[in-house]
Design a protein that fits this description.
Helix content is 27%, strand content 21%. Helix 1 crosses helix 2. Strand 2 and strand 3 (78-85) form a beta hairpin. The protein has one domain. The protein has two helices and three strands. It is globular, with a radius of gyration of 14 Å. It has a three-stranded antiparallel beta sheet. It has 86 residues and is α+β, with helices and mostly antiparallel strands.
Amino acid sequence: MSQPTDVCAVKAFLDTDNTFDKLPSSTDNTAPESEKIKHTLIGSQRTVTVTIQVLHQLGYANINDWSPIIPSSNPGEVMSVLTRYI
């Protein structure tokens, strides 16, 4: 099954230098010396949703690890936050 064009475009944009090959997978265990990092996505609901799906397909974050999508302070924008330990 082929992927929607917007998913392919986001993947190509995000991984132009194979950065995702160097990132820990979403299944890595949290070690005591790990650091917390928060990722915040802000944009249209479609763009935020597609980006969450792409990061899941790349093995970086499970879809359910993201906060619920909520409206931002700007009309037409939503946001979602992911907290990871690396």
